[in-house]
Design a protein that fits this description.
Layout (H helix, E strand, L loop, with lengths): L1 H18 L22 H9 L10 H4 L5 H5 L3 H6 L2 E4 L5 H7 L4 E4 L9 H14 L5 E4 L1 E3 L2 E2 L15 H25 L5 E2 L23 H18 L2 E7 L14 E2 L3 H17 L4 E4 L3 E2 L12 H10 L5 E4 L5 H7 L3 H8 L4 E3 L2 H13 L5 H17 L6
Parallel strand pairs: 1-2, 1-12, 2-3, 3-6, 6-7, 7-9, 8-10, 9-11
Antiparallel strand pairs: 4-5
């Protein structure tokens, strides 16, 4: 754990040096061509030239031994590549057949998928899906603890639901958080689940905030320490960790039900919201989930999940090299305004995976978008490679 702490502190130092010269959050938003990649936001161009060099955080063993999947990639069809970018909601019917038909990258299971099941019957359901596919599926779940527990809320699976982050921390601090994360990981892995969409990195100390009950209820530094502890324990357990909800939810409204615009200045994100994400990244988090909030100081027109500028910031400002994925595209904030274009826009913006219920509708649209040049083959291949590398790290595939 000491190494993880040193890593995230080093990354935070580098980030502060990179962005420390920012004086106006409005400068970060840059105009973009609809059919081209975003240019480097101007404020970061300036600070890149003036920032002092710093040592990069120590690379992880996974990064040092990452395999070459280029030959693997060359053998994949366009449909197989596109399918790998979909982390689909587990359907009520035809899950095994759909996994094969659409070459899905993974399934996310929700409470309804555990209801009426036993651990054995659930394992059989997942195994049936894995047997039909050429490339093994990621199986993910939101098992945060507290308000968001998909499996442990059912007595058939666990005597008591996992407690919330606030309850865990109040009972035993960071040591308890690490123990809780390890217990969750073992619990989920026993069911055939390799990815827990946690920890929540959002900051809130106001019980009136939508996101409050899912957070630590503490400040940025305390939450960063919590995230580092949880991700470290998950990595040691071999469980995939997903940091959420970038760039930080703040006091914003629930995007499950509508549009939400975050008007806070960039400086607030730099000094507060980004700290837990930096801690998780330095501790080896596999993925970052991007919210549907509009981050007005970076892109005042587009939800973060569909914004090339926000993804540029995550890649180049926070130096994240893993998988970026959207929050669920079926949420009202996206579905009502972007409809059929959401998945295409999400992948073009820089997401490596999209979470969606409507995969049967969206996969063919993305295939066609690649054929028409709306999504470049380069963008597609880099996303697929990140997904394959994640599956390798989790022991699902080998080159």
């Amino acid at each position: 754990m000491k190494r993880h702490k040193a890593n995230w502190l080093a990354l935070l130092t580098a980030f502060v040096l990179l962005l420390g010269g920012c004086t106006s959050s409005s400068d970060l938003a840059s105009s973009k061509e609809a059919d081209s990649a975003p240019s480097t936001p101007s404020v970061l161009q300036e600070t890149n030239q003036t920032a002092e060099p710093v040592d990069e955080p120590t690379s992880t063993p996974e990064e040092e031994t990452q395999p070459d999947f280029s030959a693997y990639l060359e053998q994949m069809t366009l449909e197989e590549k596109v399918g790998q970018l979909f982390f689909a909601r587990f359907p009520e019917e035809n899950a095994a057949a759909d996994a094969a038909t659409y070459h899905l990258g993974g399934y996310i299971v929700f409470g309804r998928d555990f209801e009426g099941e036993t651990p054995d019957s659930f394992r059989q359901k997942i195994a049936a899906c894995q047997e039909t596919v050429t490339i093994p599926l990621l199986i993910g779940v939101d098992e945060e603890g507290g308000d968001v527990v998909r499996a442990s809320k059912y007595e058939a699976f666990r005597d008591t639901p996992f407690p919330s982050p606030q309850e865990v921390l109040s009972s035993g601090g960071l040591a308890a958080a690490a123990t809780d994360a390890a217990e969750k990981s073992a619990f989920l892995q026993d069911l055939g689940i390799q990815v827990n969409l946690s920890p929540v990195c959002d900051l809130s100390q106001n019980p009136e905030d939508y996101i409050y009950s899912r957070t630590t209820g503490q400040g940025a530094e305390e939450t960063a320490a919590y995230v580092a502890s949880v991700v470290g324990a998950m990595k040691e357990s071999g469980m995939g960790a997903v940091l959420k909800h970038f760039p930080g939810y703040g006091a914003n409204a629930d995007t499950h039900t509508g549009f939400s615009v975050d008007e806070r200045p960039l400086e607030t994100f730099q000094t507060e919201d980004f700290l837990p994400f930096l801690a998780g990244i330095a501790s080896g988090a596999d993925a970052v989930l991007v919210s549907h909030n509009v981050m007005a100081c970076v892109d005042d027109k587009t939800p973060a999940s569909l914004s090339p500028e926000v993804h540029w910031l995550l890649r180049n400002g926070l130096n994240f090299t893993g998988v970026i994925l959207t929050d669920d595209l079926a949420m009202a904030a996206i579905a009502e305004q972007y409809g059929d274009n959401a998945a295409i826009l999400a992948i073009a913006a820089g997401n490596d995976m999209v979470i969606t219920t409507d995969y049967a509708h969206d996969v063919p649209l993305v295939v066609e978008a690649v054929k028409q040049g709306e999504i470049s083959m380069e963008r597609l291949d880099e996303a697929v490679l990140r997904v394959l590398n994640w599956k390798y790290d989790l022991g699902l595939i080998h080159p």
